[in-house]
Amino acid sequence: MLKVYRGELLHFLADPAKVALEDSYQYIEDGLLIIKDGLIEQVGEAAQLLSSLDENIEITHYESGLMMPGFIDTHVHYPQTEMIASYGEQLLEWLENYTFPFERKFSDFEHGKKVAEFFLTQLLEAGTTTALVFGTVHKESVDAFFTVAQQKKLRMICGKVLMDQNCPDYLSDTAQTGYDDSKALIEKWHGTERLQYAITPRFAPTCSTEQLNKAGQLLAENPSVYLHTHLSENKAEIAWVKDLFPDSDGYLDVYDKSKLLGRRSVFAHGVHLHDSECQRLGETDSAIAFCPSSNLFLGSGLFNLKQAQAFDVNVGFGSDIGAGTTFSMLSTINEGYKTQQLRSDKLSPFQSFYLATLGGAVALDLEGTIGNFTKGAEADFIVLDYNATPLMDRRMQHCSNLSEKLFILSMLGDERHVKATHIMGERV
Ligand code: GUN
Ligand code: ZN
Fold first, then answer.
1. Residue 230 Cβ contacting ligand 1 at under 6 Å
2. Which ligand is in closest contact with the Cα of 80?
3. What share of the chain is helix, strand, coil (3-state, %, to 5)?
């Protein structure tokens, strides 16, 4: 079944940091997106493609707006939805005081389903169509999340948290039960429709060496699943890891020793990395989730994007809800731009929209499947609206090129500027 959409259209073909800018994207002022059975069939100039279509075919015309691939959120916690905007603490106290008590409730499958329903609706309204998502320690939290994601036909990655030390008893598993529960969840969900599993040790401080090693064993046994954790977010956290793992050569090395690095490994934050750690992430093809909203909110620091790029580390954007304060990737880009300004670095509009779409897909090893309009990719796409607010509308009247347009969208935009979200070609 064909579905055809007409309008202004943008998608990325490569990383603008690695190729000539004009080779990194395709932009068509009046384009057609032709979708067959939920997958991209063809994209091109309307003037050229219209004549090839059956004249009876219905065309949805988005006359004012920009069609682009759905945003990809490479790090987010669905169980933290209801504790977003919790005041006053930095990472470790924030976890103790707010996060852990909220996560306790996710032993209840029905509670998980309710929150997952709300969370996924918020994501879709913000134009995010794929995310790499933390559950809680309870396997019910992942069952609930995947149940709702499957109903919505989404491409989502989630996993049960592993933590067996330095956490409340009510949130603790053991190396063995964590392994067994994760394995059962992999068998149940990984590869079911568009759902994939991520082995999810919370972070080094809450995982014994035995638990991290078991996570590495499970990853080796299931090479197509993901590894998702936190890394070098906060200075007190890093000092704690040094105390807890005196034999390791730095934070990343704790994970490396347990064989947790690789093409499908995603490390959230990486705000305070040494060059040698970036090099190791690059050579193992691991990815970093850059979470500027969270890094500012928790006062964690300013991610060094240039450093990651210098070592060829894959990077995507993460909202990191509930430490991040927005579901919107437009707002996340906005915060990302400001973090780079504070480092005296420039985050260009092309670079940031790349990171929010194709860059996220590359970070998740899903290029060709999502993230751009390449033939055969899943047709998860959005339409951004320049006129949704009077201020953006007015500012756009003084805009002279695509770069400026993207910049304005990301500085002034949020959920209000997402006119439509499409999943496998269908508007939701
Ligand atoms: N490090 C360990 N757990 C968490 C969490 O839930 N949020 C953030 N931002 N960092 C963490
Ligand atoms: Zn996080």
1. yes
2. 1
3. 45, 25, 30
Burial string for 316-344 (b: 16+ CB within 10 Å, else e) reads: bbbbbbbbbbbbbbbbbbbbbbebbeeee
Nearest atom within ligand 1 for CA of residue 99? 6
pTM for this prediction:
0.98
**C-alpha span between 30 and 47 (Å, rounded):** 8
Q: φ and ψ at 160, to 5 degrees?
A: -80, 135
Closest-approaching ligand to the CA atom of 320: 2
Q: Provide the H-helix boundaries in 13-98.
A: 21-24, 46-49, 91-94
Beta-bridged to residue 378, according to DSSP, are: 39
pLDDT, position 248: 98
Q: Which of 266, 263, 79, 71 is nearest to 155 (CA)?
A: 71
Please state at what angle helix 209-221 crosses helix 175-189, rounded to 10 degrees: 20
How many Å is the maximal CA-CA distance in the chain?
70
Per-residue pLDDT reduced to its tens digit, 165-219: 999 999 999 999 999 999 999 999 999 999 999 999 999 999 999 999 999 999 9
93 and 128 Cβ atoms separated by less than 8 Å = no
* Residue 410 token pair: 């990301």
Cα–Cα distance, 33 to 265 (Å, whole number):
32
The tens digit of pLDDT for each residue in 67-100 reads 999 999 999 999 999 999 999 999 999 999 999 9
Q: How far is ligand 1, taken at its centre, from the CA of residue 95, in Å?
A: 7
Token pair for residue 88? 């006053």
Atom 5 of ligand 1: nearest residue by CA position: 95
- How many angstroms separate the CA atoms of 80 and 94, rounded? 12
- Measure 223 CA to ligand 1 centroid, in angstroms: 25
Half-sphere exposure of 260 (CA within 13 A, CB side): 29
Residue closest by Cα to atom 7 of ligand 1:
323
Check if 261 has its Cβ closer than 6 Å to any atom of ligand 1.
no
The response to whether residue 228 sits with its C-beta less than 6 Å from ligand 1 reads no
Tell me, in angstroms, the distance from the centre of ligand 2 to residue 40's CA: 32
Distance 398 CA to ligand 2 centre (A): 38
Of 83, 94, 95, 137, the one to substitute when testing ligand 1's pocket (max ligand atoms within 8 A of C-beta) is: 95
Q: Are 72 and 129 in contact (CB under 8 A)?
A: yes
User: Does the Cβ of 203 fall within 6 Å of ligand 1?
Assistant: yes
* Backbone phi, psi, residue 56, to 5°: -85, -5
